[in-house]
Amino acid sequence: MIRASPVQFTKMCLAFPGKIISIKGDEALVDFDGIEKEINVSLVRGAKKGDFVIVHAGFAIQKLSGQSAAEVFRIHEENEKSN
């Protein structure tokens, strides 16, 4: 009989919200809690300055309400404190 070895899971974040600071065409400058990155927003229709977006691999993949973004930040902060 073949037995699978135990699997270890590592916490990781695959997507994180950021706030669009400026936008030009398909490129936006997005603020991630003080860290600014250039992000492609071509996948999110109607993205504009001030919107919160979920970003994965350099692409905005979804808009997020300010309330939802605040909740994600709160959960992330709690997780950081518990580690």
Please characterize this protein's 3D structure.
- The protein has 83 residues and is an alpha+beta fold.
- The protein has one domain: SH3 type barrels (Roll).
- Helices cover 20% and strands 39% of the residues.
- The protein has a five-stranded antiparallel β-sheet.
- It starts with 15 loop residues before the first strand and ends with a helix.
Short description, anyone?
With 83 residues, this protein is α+β, with helices and mostly antiparallel strands. It has one helix at 66-82, and strands spanning 16-24, 27-32, 35-40, 52-56, 59-64. The protein has a single domain, classed as SH3 type barrels.
Coarse morphology: elongated
Tell me the structural class.
alpha+beta
Sequence stretches where pLDDT stays below 50 over 5 or more residues: none
Major sheet: arrangement of strands:
3-2-1-4-5
Query: What is the class in the CATH system?
Result: Mainly Beta
- From N to C, what is the helix and strand string? EEEEEH
Helix percentage range: 10-25%
Head-to-tail CA distance between termini: 38 Å
Question: What is the number of helices?
Answer: 1
Round the Cα radius of gyration to an integer and report it. 16 Å
The CATH topology comes to SH3 type barrels
Beta-strand share of residues = 35-45%
Biggest sheet architecture: 5 strands, antiparallel
**Overall pLDDT level:** 85
Count of DSSP strands: 5
CATH architecture: Roll
Question: What is the domain total for the residues?
Answer: 1
